[in-house]
Specification:
The structure is a homodimer of 210-residue chains. Chain A has 210 residues and is an alpha/beta fold. Chain A folds into two domains: 2-139, Response regulator (Rossmann fold, 3-Layer(aba) Sandwich), CATH 3.40.50.2300; 153-206, Arc Repressor Mutant, subunit A (Orthogonal Bundle), CATH 1.10.10. In chain A, 52% of the residues lie in helices and 13% in strands. Chain A has ten helices and five strands. Chain A has helices at 11-22, 36-45, 63-73, 88-97, 109-120, 128-139, 153-163, 168-175, 179-193, 198-206, and strands spanning 2-7, 27-33, 51-54, 78-83, 101-104. In chain A, strands 2-1-3-4-5 form a five-stranded parallel beta sheet, with helices on both faces. In chain A, helix 7 (153-163) packs across helix 10 (198-206) and helix 8 crosses helix 9. The N and C termini of chain A lie far apart (53 Å). Chain A binds chain B through residues 92, 95-96, 98-100, 118-119, 121-129, 131-132, 134-135, 137-139, 162-165, 167, 195, 197-200, 202-203, 206-207, and chain B through 92, 95-96, 98-100, 118-119, 121-129, 131-132, 134-135, 137-139, 162-167, 195, 197-200, 202-203, 206-207. Chain A binds a DNA duplex (30 and 30 nucleotides) through residues 152, 154-155, 167-169, 177-181, 183-188, 190, 196-198.
Chain lengths: 210, 210
Amino acid sequence: MIEIGIVEDNVKIRNLIQRYLDMQETMSCKVAVDSVEEMLEHLENNSTPGVLLMDIQLPGMSGIEGIELIKKKYPEIEIIMLTIYHDSHKIFDSLVAGASGYLLKHTSLPEIKESIETLMDGGAPMSPQIARKVIQHFNKPEPQKNPESNLTSREQDIVNGLVDGLSYKLIADRFDISIDTVRAHIRNIYKKLHVNSKAEVIAKSLRGEI
Amino acid sequence: MIEIGIVEDNVKIRNLIQRYLDMQETMSCKVAVDSVEEMLEHLENNSTPGVLLMDIQLPGMSGIEGIELIKKKYPEIEIIMLTIYHDSHKIFDSLVAGASGYLLKHTSLPEIKESIETLMDGGAPMSPQIARKVIQHFNKPEPQKNPESNLTSREQDIVNGLVDGLSYKLIADRFDISIDTVRAHIRNIYKKLHVNSKAEVIAKSLRGEI
DNA sequence: AGACAAATAACATATTCATGTGAAGCCGAA
DNA sequence: TTCGGCTTCACATGAATATGTTATTTGTCT
C-alpha cells in the first residue's frame, strides 16, 4: 500500500485526486492540504507518506521551496510536481530542488495513478514534452568558444596543469620538460587567449571558454 | 511520411526494425547501415532522413561520436539512441552529444514506432527508468561546500577580484584599500581554504566549492 | 626544397605573489 | 570589560610569474 499526500490549493482538484487515488486498491491518500506549511506540520506528527503530489503555485511558500525543505527533512519522500507550468525554468528548478517527476495538470486521473506506479518502480514520471525540455538543458551549454584560441594539445596540457594549481616547476616535472619550455608554452597560450596571467587562464578554462 | 534511417550492426535486429517501420503507413525506412561511416557517406549523396535510430556499440566510430558528427553537418536530423547500455554515463554523453531520445533494445517494435511519433510531436522518447537517470544528473551536483570555509563578505570580495583576474594592486584599487590589506585578507583566505596560491582559490571558487 | 607551425630550450629582468611579523581600531559575545 | 574576530595597514624577503630575445629540431603542407 502506497501512502500518498497532496499539496494543492485548488480544493476541487485536490478532492478529486484524493478521492480517486484513495479508492485504488494499492493506494491510500489521507492527507491533502493546501500549503507546504500545513504539510510540514502534518509530517511532524504523523507517518511520512511515500509520495507527495505537489503544486508549484501555492499560498505561502512556493512548491519549489517546499521541495527543498521537505527533501531535506524527509529525503525518502518522492515528490511529483503537478502544475500548469511547463517552462524550462520551473521544470529545471523543481528537478534541482529534488523532484522525481513532473506532470502537467491536464494529466488524467488514471495517468496520475500510473505515474505514481512508475515512480515506485524506479522511474521518473514525466510527459515526453517535459522530457524534451529536460534534455535540452544538456545540449545548450555551448555558448561561444573562442575560435581564435585553438590551443595545441600540448598547450592544453599546460592549461590543465595550471587549472590543477601547479607551479611552472611542477608542470615541467609532470610532462618531463624544462621549466623554460613551460614558460614558452605559457607565453603562446597568453597570446592566443589575449590574457596575461595564470589567473585569467584558469578562469577561462573553468568557464569553458577554451 | 517520416523518413527514417538506422545505424545498427546487428543484421537481424536491423532488418527486423527496418521492415517493421517501412510497412507503416506514415513511415519510410530505406536506409539501414551498420556503421556511422556508412551513414555519413549515404547522407552525402541522398536526401536526409528526419529521424535516425542509432546504436552505441558499432564497428569503427562509436554511436556517440557519430551523433556529434551527424548533428554538426545535419542539425535537423533527430537522433534516437537504441542500445543495450543503461548506465548514466552513456545516457548523459548521448544527450550532450545531441540525441533527442534514448531507448533500450528490449523496446518492442510498436513502442519504437510510438517513440518516433512522440519525437515528431516534439517530445523526447525515453523510458521512465532512463528519465530517472537523466534527472538524477540535476540533483547530484552539490558535493561538499567546505563548511570550515566561511569567508567573510570582505574576503568574498577579494576572491571575486581574484576570479576576475585582477592583481593585488587592482583589487586594492577596486575596493579602495591598500595592497597590504589585500595581502592580509588573502593570507586569511588561504588559511581558511587550506590553499596557498591564487590559482587554487580561483579554481575552488569557479567549481562552486566556496 | 622551402615555408611554417609546434615543441623544445636557455638567459635575462622586472613585476607580482606568498609568507613572516607586528599592530591599531572596531564591534559583538562572553 | 575583556576576549576574539574582522578590517585595516606597514615592512621585509625569497619564490614564482610575466615578458623579451634567440635558437634548434621535427613534422607537415606546398
